[in-house]
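Sample A.
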Amino acid sequence: MSLVEPTFSTTLEGQRFIAALAESTARVVQLEKEAIDQAGSAEEILSVHLERYRSLILAIAQVVWTLDPDGAMIERQPSWAAYTGQSFEDYRRWGWLEAVHPDDRARHAEVWARAVSAGAPYELEQRLRHRDGSYRDFSVRAVPVLAEDGSIREWAGIHTDITERKRTEQTWRDGERRFRELADSMPQIVWTAPPDGHFDYYNRRWYEFTGRPEGMSGDESWRDVVHPDDQEECLARWHGAIRSGDAYEIEYRLRHRSGSYHWFLRRALPVRDPAGRITRWFGTCTNIDGVKHKEEVLRRAKEETEAANRDLEAFSYSVAHDLRAPLRSIDGFSQAILDDNADQLDAQGISYLTRVRAAAQRMAQLIDALLSLASVSRAELRKERVDITHLARGIMDRLRETDPARGATVIVADGLTAEGDPKLLAAIMENLLGNAWKFTGQTPEAHIEVGATTKDGQAGFFVRDNGAGFDMAYADKLFGAFQRLHTNTEFPGTGIGLATVQRIVSRHGGRIWAQSELARGATFFFTLGSGATS
């Protein structure tokens, strides 16, 4: 790729311009001499034509001059003097060379010698000193003016200021160099293409990775490097992007120079001019092979985990069924003994059988709690808008029915809603409100509150009570399965409830935490990710 456009003098238009300019310059010189040799009306006519040609020359150039056949300035050159500041004595004969940059004089002399020898026009670039002492770049063009016998009578030339063009070209070259240096320093493969999409530049990473020879362009430079299974889609999507002008992105495999294939993420963006036309495509190819391999490992691990969970689920239900049967027998026979033989048993015997029944019932509760905890992790989330206010008030009504003597004050804020799975959100509130009800059982003037909260800009909820509370030193143990801070005789339970709540909250993309003081109650806060209060 080249970011530098062809110079004016190398184009067909430039060549025509040079020829026309040379012809005009020669015509000016000829008319000047004819005007000197003639008088009267002819002189006036020639003078009009002369001024017209001079105006043309001055409009397109800064310095016009003539030299004798040997390259000497033998006549006054107003244009040359005006620009360089040299007097006639300074520039006459070969003194004009003093205005040419010292580093360019030898080359000028060489080109000039060849032109004189061949009697042909010549062209070169040189630096010319301005009257203020600064040098500017000029394009120098000269043609021989022939006498009637065909010999060279003189040379007519023109200096055209090309300083701005040279600066622009240098800017382009510097920009191209910086772009290449930047592209070569990047870890990604970098490429460019003109609007038609035929690739014309790759950075060093492309050649290092593919081992391709430099100089290839177009689709053939990369088509057979793409994995055969990816070629059709890759080409179709690239050509579609060229037609639509949209950004381009695809994952595909490229062949390494060793023959192995690596996954790459290929992106391209169009660069547009002020009119919105695409002037160029810039693209990158990022090696994502390591990421794809990790994704594959994770995918397989997920499949294996899901399979293991299915097996564990089946095992859990099987074990639960097998365990429930003997527990039911233990509980049933213990109750039968108590009913049928109570008059034959002493107090200790009755106590033993009562404790056996309680242990069997507690074991059944634990089995049910474990199955519930397992189902929370597996159940598919079905999110919808849930009325938390209505849900909480319904749960508290059921708790009051089980213990009508309790006079706890319950406050549930109006208008609480959340986005989540209705069954799982019900499990959260049942566990948290059940705990609040349980731990305020021995508290005079028990108070329970449900409301809205915010954490790190995310909406959430809280359940607060003024019950037994707990030491915050044990706060990190609250949400683990079977973690209990009180004995079963103080506050009965399975130790599964808060672990279930934590899993449900986590599945919703939220978090749960607690604040408490011993004998001063506890507050449980939770967010639900995308859930929100209203």
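Sample B, a different protein:
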Amino acid sequence: MSSRTELTFCRICEATCGLRATIEGDRVVAIEPDRDHVVTKGYSCIKGLRYNEIHHSPDRLRVPLKRVGDGFEEISWEQALEEIGTKVRQLVEEHGGDSVSAYLGNPISFSLLPPVLTAAFLQGLGSRNLFQTGSQDCNNKFAAAERLYGFPFIQPFADIDRNQCLIIIGSNPAVSRSSFMQLPDPVRRLRAIEGRGGKVFNVNPRRTETAKQLGTQVFIRPDTDIYFLLSFLHEVFSRDAIAHERVSQHMKGLEPLRAVAEAWPPERSAEVTGIASETLRSMVDAYLEADGAAIFLSTGVNQGSHGTLAFWIQETINAVTGNLDRLGGTIVGRGFIKNFPKHARRGGHTMRKDRSRIGQLPSVADTFPAGLMADEILTPGEGQVRALFCLSGNPLLSVPNSNGRLEKALKALELLVVIDIFRNETANHAHYVLPGSSALQRADLPFVFQSLMGVQPIPYAQFTDALLPLEDEQRDETMILLQLARACGSRLFGSRVANGFFNAWGSLGRLPGIGSRIGLTPERFLGLMARAFRIGSLRSLRREPHGRLLEPNKGDDFLGQRVVTDDGLVDLAPEEFVAAASELETAFEAERAQRGKLKLISKRETHSHNSWMHNFPRFVEGKRSTNYLYMNPEDGGRVGVESGAMVEVRSSVASVRLPVQLTDEMMVGAVALPHGWGHQAADGLSVASQTTGVNVNLLAADGPEQLEYFSGMAKLNGIWVEVVAV
């Protein structure tokens, strides 16, 4: 059989690495890095290079399924759409739009159209209840950016290829490729900082894969990052290392910010962080002496008790020292849409000011916390959630306390519709399971972070056609959402004009061949978006299959020009944050009182990605068929265990049992447990269901009192635990 080679890009994470796929017939037989890609230049991680084997899994969903009794029966798309539509119309008529909700998962979030249409679908029903994975890992950055810069998607990022000092807190780019920042080939690019005489610090409770290869390791006790950052800011003020002219011209709130930092000298934070005052001061020295520096925090901090405040203080340090909006410091990309934050803010997009029905938590980027899903479903009253559309997600594994109240809640729903490529744990509770497409079956432009936020150290654009056809009754998620909108009576985007266009598109798309013959395809709409983004036509983008470099980042083009607060100034001291900082004393005293207790962090693995990559045999073979609790040998001695022994990890919520691995990679007093496991009940995943790993999120609490107020994020890092030998 003859073979052909096609170029595409990965959609597992922000890195979006360029790939070369070898195709024989309708099968991708190999994936290699695209050595001629304009940015990734031959780099890709193991997950992207094995994606074809996930795509070709025999467990792929191929036809719509309907729950009948305790099992599922195959049905037609026509029946599925009609029955789902009838039920949704009934619920909206009887209980209002908020009775219908949606959960947007990680894999589909790295494509452009489905996330936009999911929000449009709910908006057209009159529902506010969109939940998504951001409330597990990143909403703190959106919540803080809205208050500092006027819009949640304004996200400064380190100018990685020019930094002279980079302080990485709670991130492991060698495995995660970083977030929010497009960073393929991270180790090479971080080593280059040291190669040009700069310094890199890895602040983490674990000596990560990144720290093993470069930089200086600085151990920090889990969930104490806010105190480290406040002491860092304290030192900046004590040395008067302030870019006064820049601050006075483009920022406000310097003196209230100074007052916040005043109470946190390095000697004080050292009591709970474990970072000696002289170590912290030496890091401040390196940061201030560098010709361009940045502090960068990520998931490990985001998921703690004070993720929003930590991101706020990080941003203020970068800002007041003159490193914000300068080459070599942190820069703010423009994205593909000119002046998007300004226009979106004016139209109120992703800027809702409402609060959740349960707990009165603020919405973040027009979404509510997934940690409230169980409460929103189980609590009677006006606005109670009665239907859930789950798109490419698995909240039963990824949301805290999932095997407790959330599982009960899913069973209580009047309608649960799952759109996915596998029947996972969440889908096992669904009334309808609809077969979607894999990334190899979708045409795409870079996802929302690149197109709207522009978090690209090297800006570029790329288009990929679908490499493989849909099989049997599989459908592209874009078409599924359009057809569901038509069946459910959703006026997409709440607009009569948009609704008429999209519903006509979705209707014709149901007829084999007609949609493509008249151009009503996802590719056609992507082409319209590419022109709107001013990155060219699909024809021109296809002529540059390795990607098209865009205008490079300039620096000095954000402050005074693209800050979209009401007065155009960066707000260094939002009143809500200053008030919250004054309440840190209680949390600090709790940390001091429990310094001898173990704290749990999550861990990302090279051969894993959240909850959806354990159904590939080579990723879970041998010792990788389970997750492990990683513990310092000194702590293991106190517990009385050696590597390989079974232990029980107990939190205030639940307990799990798994084998332990003793390693000096962990600091004393901290233990790590990789997330995304616990597939034993997933009979639709023939490989993953045979693994023995446990779900770390069972140890985390849900409910409004347990979530960080500003972001709605659950505490998934820094959980106090007890470990005992089994």
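Observation for Sample B: Residues 410 and 662 are 38 Å apart (CA to CA).
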